[in-house]
Design the sequence.
């Protein structure tokens, strides 16, 4: 169950955190080849070698800046050169830097759209061309966020980017229905990862034990873990998810629109 036997996958953001967990889980459940994309060459090469040795799956790293369309296209060409085709694409990379509607700079806005929307768009474009050319009934999974629905004030451009990704997911899924290429998205909630630790300490002045304190306040007494999200991605990539396509799935321990007494409000007035 939930296997991807003999499949070839591209995983963005694959050098750490969720992307690395997805790549590892794919390798454990039968993938023939995986190309992980990221910016850190040393980390990418080391992880590729480690997963290959542990699982026997052929894993390769391709250095990619997702906001650079040429590098995105080259990553697909690299995959075709090494494995001939692509069965699965997972857009797991994401920029989560903070900024509200008043303080977000043009530079941050462009970076956010580049990594979270532009990169996935053109990767999907070239992967879909390869799938159609080879008559592959492939699967594309985008990693979104609960912030796509509204998001906190300090996630202005991030929320916009994930909302755009959700629209891209549905539009592409509809366009590819008759090709039997499935496109789905997981809108994940608060997840424990190396990247989240960096965000909490950099932007929110959180103490080193922030995770322990945060988990105490959650309904399930923990945050999402990268390995459980990776298993959900594997389900969407596998034939076990059947004809599911165009789905944007909330994966969190909250229910959108639900609140105990009155609707939630911002913690303070916007300042300039």
Sequence:
């Amino acid at each position: 169950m939930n296997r991807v036997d003999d499949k070839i996958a591209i995983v963005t953001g694959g050098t750490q955190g969720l992307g690395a967990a997805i790549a590892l889980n794919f390798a454990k459940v039968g993938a023939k080849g995986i190309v992980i994309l990221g910016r850190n060459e040393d980390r990418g090469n080391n992880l590729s070698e480690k997963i290959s040795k542990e699982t026997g799956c052929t894993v390769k790293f391709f250095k990619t800046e997702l906001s650079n369309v040429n590098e995105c296209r080259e990553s697909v060409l690299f995959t075709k050169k090494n494995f001939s085709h692509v069965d699965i694409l997972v857009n797991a990379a994401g920029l989560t830097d903070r900024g509200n509607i008043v303080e977000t700079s043009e530079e941050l806005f462009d970076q956010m759209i580049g990594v979270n929307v532009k990169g996935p768009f053109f990767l999907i474009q070239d992967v879909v061309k390869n799938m159609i050319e080879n008559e592959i009934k492939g699967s594309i999974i985008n990693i979104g966020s609960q912030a796509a629905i509204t998001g906190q004030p300090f996630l202005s451009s991030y929320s916009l980017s994930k909302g755009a990704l959700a629209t891209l997911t549905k539009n592409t899924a509809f366009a590819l229905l008759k090709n039997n290429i499935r496109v789905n998205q997981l809108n994940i909630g608060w997840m424990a990862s190396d990247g989240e630790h960096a965000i909490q300490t950099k932007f929110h002045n959180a103490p080193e034990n922030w995770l322990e304190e945060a988990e105490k306040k959650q309904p399930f007494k923990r945050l999402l873990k990268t390995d459980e999200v990776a298993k959900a991605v594997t389900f969407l990539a596998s034939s076990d998810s059947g004809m599911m396509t165009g789905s944007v799935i909330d994966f969190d321990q909250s229910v959108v629109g639900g609140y105990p007494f009155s609707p939630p409000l911002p913690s303070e007035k916007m300042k300039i």
